[in-house]
Write a structure and sequence with these properties.
708 residues, alpha/beta, 2-enoyl-CoA Hydratase, Chain A, domain 1, Rossmann fold, N-(1-d-carboxylethyl)-l-norvaline Dehydrogenase, domain 2, 4 domains, eight-stranded mixed β-sheet, six-stranded mixed β-sheet, 29 helices, binds coenzyme A
Length: 708
């Protein structure tokens, strides 16, 4: 259907007006849908041939929410509250026929109806907080009247989506029907039209009493779990209004809070992140020959931590996978890890035993390369050593069927070199998973100049099928994420020798919104990884360039992080809490003295500026070199692989939000203080700062993209 065709139609059957919204892809409440629905409700209410109304949708889902595409413009009438009020006030019964995902404004429309019928598979919810908003059309006022204060708190402040069965038990739905939900809704509408009882209007129900304990707990939880975000706390305020004010006043209060958030920077950033997550999958500039190949069976080489977790990704997505290792003991360990991992989920109740058995059953452990003969894709997750990669890819070249996608999970080695070990470099691509691979959503899909477009498209689609956010990148040292991370890591060490302690850097970055501080993360993953990498790169440091060897000093003392009970912090037995360690402080202070650096107090603003703008400067280079084609590719890497706060949009979006002139000026100031080696502004940053441009609006000519 064309977007400007009338998106709402009414059919009258046996005196029931079935109003159907048809606006692909998800029946979002655009201005035209709101206007059409309001008009249809008013007409049906006035029509003498109509006894009751059903609100239904065509396509794949009931209304999935407000139309996010309209959020960058001022709201246009008719506004959603006017529509929901008209539905609730309708003198004839109005029944909602829910299926798919009835979310946000869509569920608010349903809440205003007098009865809600859903398919068993329907999912409902008010996830607005995830977009930096609160429900703005009665959701915070009507839901607590239906399900009680505490339940409404959980649903609105957490923003989680609920299945139909749970929603029925909670009182958010009235009936679960078979899959012909419109017929069931029409039958309910007829029953209500002939019943003597008055209509049950959610807004007219008694207000739910505030549960003070639940309220305090919700505030504490939100401050902790949704740290830095405004919307969850505002949602709690709106819910309090539902409990303390009459409906009409509560609705006014809710709307005012909603409009304030709608204009907020956090909401804009979260909206960007939502849309970017979908946009990233669309590959610009790929021709018609980029048709993805079918993937029915997979193979993984290497049963270490990474390989085992990648095999789990395939098994979780329903694909049979051969897991190969050349070492029998290593293979057994890998399988044991997989079983233990699944068993933890079963014990926690997040996975059924039968599902675990099915998944484990899809993983065939093998020592025999022949087992990879049938695979449509093989992911190599062997040791990070170019000679090992050569052996693996020569073996794969000999055994894999023609057309199989051969992927490497390398994080630093050159994918083009690895592709050169085969006679089919066009079929070779990087698939860089992040640890733990079965949990982390990021997948960098690394193409070389010789990767066939169809192979890139296959890897991207496979990534999505595995539940990942797949980001297309060109080969580059450290790809996108680790290349930018190297910049930040360097600055964190310099900050230590200039006067900060690990806990100062971590606190400042956690305060900024990162899930964890970099030193606590390093302790968690093991300092030996960064140490080995540092040693491998030692030859690349130019003489005279500033270098800080604190990491060597810490590792040389046997402090490799949590696994050795000490790293940048100390740990008590059985406790993962990082505790500041006087021994580390003494080591750092002695290091500053030995290198002649006078320690000074470093403000948080400087810590954040140096850590984030150093990454952004590198991001600008990554963009101008054509390693990625869009700033959103970089932002998706950081949101889904490195714990960058979604409500800041990602590093490139955050730079845009701060203003590129300000970022450029800050980098020039650092250059004047610390020298040009690490702080020369990227030309693209300089150009955008001068011209008032933005990274997220910048587009390179398709023809100029490296490797295209
Ligand atoms: N407004 C406008 N477009 C929307 C939208 C919305 N509220 N929700 C989804 N879309 C678009 C997506 O951008 C995507 O567009 P594309 O095909 O051009 O990329 C398309 O609908 C399909 O969405 P997608 O997320 O890829 O499909 P899905 O089946 O995995 O998930 C939803 C569907 C509805 C569950 C999911 O899109 C979602 O959670 N949407 C947001 C719901 C929400 O928060 N509503 C409250 C808004 S205040």
């Amino acid at each position: 259907m064309e977007p400007d065709a009338a998106p709402v139609a009414t059919a009258i059957r046996d005196r029931i007006a079935v109003i159907t919204i048809d606006r692909p892809p998800v029946n979002a409440l655009s201005t035209a849908v709101r206007a059409g629905l309001l008009d249809a409700v008013r007409r049906a209410a006035a029509d003498r041939d109509v006894d009751a109304l059903v609100i239904a949708c065509a396509g794949r889902t009931f209304i999935a929410g407000a139309d996010l595409a309209e959020f960058d413009r001022p709201p246009e009438p008719p506004h959603l509250p006017e529509l929901t009020q008209a539905i609730e006030d309708c003198p004839k019964p109005v029944v909602a026929a829910l299926f798919g995902t009835a979310l946000g404004g869509g569920f608010e429309v349903a809440l205003a109806c007098h009865y809600r019928v859903a398919t068993p598979g329907a999912r409902i919810g008010l996830p607005e907080v995830k977009l930096g908003l609160i429900p703005g059309a009665g959701g915070t006022q009507r839901l607590p009247r239906l399900v009680g204060f505490e339940r409404a708190l959980a649903m609105i402040v957490g923003g989680d989506v609920v299945g139909a069965v749970d929603a029925l038990a909670a009182g958010a739905l009235d009936e679960i029907a078979g899959d012909d939900v419109v017929t069931a809704a029409a039958a309910a509408a007829r029953r209500l039209a002939t019943a003597a009882a008055p209509l049950r209007r959610s807004g007219a129900l008694a207000a739910a009493a505030v549960d003070r304990t639940a309220l305090e707990r919700a505030r504490r939880d939100a401050a902790k779990r949704q740290r830095g975000q405004h919307a969850p706390l505002v949602a709690i305020d709106a819910l309090c209004a539902a409990a303390t004010l009459p409906l009409a006043e509560g609705l006014i209060r809710e709307r005012a809070l909603f409009l304030e958030l709608r204009r907020s920077e956090q909401a804009a950033a979260l909206r960007y992140a939502f849309l970017a997550e979908r946009e990233v999958a669309k590959l610009p500039g790929l021709g018609a020959d980029a048709k993805p190949r079918a993937i029915h069976r997979a193979g993984v080489v290497g049963a270490g931590t990474m390989g085992a977790a990648i095999a789990m990704c395939f098994a979780n997505a329903g694909l049979p996978v051969a897991l190969l290792d050349v070492d029998a003991a290593g293979l057994a360990r890998g399988l044991e890890n997989i079983r233990r991992n699944y068993a933890t989920s079963v014990a926690r109740g997040s996975l059924a035993q039968a599902a675990m058995d099915e998944r484990v059953g899809r993983i065939a452990a093998t020592l025999d390369w022949d087992a990879l003969r049938e695979a449509d894709v093989v992911v190599e997750a062997a040791f990070e050593d170019i000679d090992v990669k050569r052996q693996v890819f020569e073996a794969l070249d000999a055994v894999a069927r023609p057309g199989a996608v051969l992927a490497t999970n390398t994080s630093y080695l050159d994918v083009a070199t690895i592709a050169g070990f085969t006679t089919r470099p066009q079929d070779v691509v990087g698939m860089h998973f992040f640890s733990p691979a079965n949990v982390m959503r990021l997948l960098e899909v690394v193409r070389t100049p010789r990767t066939a477009p169809a192979v890139l498209a296959t890897a991207m689609r496979l990534g999505r099928a595995l539940g990942k956010v797949a980001v297309p990148v060109m080969g580059s040292d450290g790809f996108v994420g680790n290349r930018m991370l190297m910049q930040r890591t360097r600055e964190t060490f310099f900050l230590l020798e200039e006067g900060a302690l690990p806990q100062d850097v971590d606190r400042a970055l956690v305060e900024f919104g990162f899930a964890m501080g970099p030193f606590a993360v390093a302790d968690l993953s093991g300092l030996d990884i960064g140490w080995a990498n540092r040693k491998a790169r030692a030859h690349r440091r130019l003489p005279g360039m500033r270098d800080c060897n604190l990491l060597d000093q810490v590792c040389e003392r046997g402090r490799l992080g949590q696994k050795t009970g000490a790293g940048w912090y100390r740990y008590e037995a059985g406790d993962r809490t990082p505790r500041p360690d006087p021994e580390i402080e003494a080591l750092i202070v002695a290091h500053s003295r030995a290198t002649g650096i006078e320690r000074r107090p470093i403000p948080d603003e400087e810590i954040v500026g140096r850590c984030v703008w150093s990454m952004v400067n590198e991001g600008a280079r990554i963009l101008e070199e054509g390693v990625v084609t869009r700033a959103l590719d970089i932002d998706m890497v950081w949101l889904h692989g490195y714990g960058f706060p979604a409500w800041r949009g990602g590093p490139m979006y955050a730079a845009d939000a701060a203003g590129l002139t300000a970022v450029h000026d800050a980098i020039l100031r650092y250059r004047d203080r610390f020298g040009p080696d690490y702080w020369t502004p990227a030309p693209l940053l300089g150009e955008l700062a001068r011209t008032g441009g933005r990274f997220t609006r910048w587009a390179r000519d398709a023809g100029a993209t490296r490797g295209s």
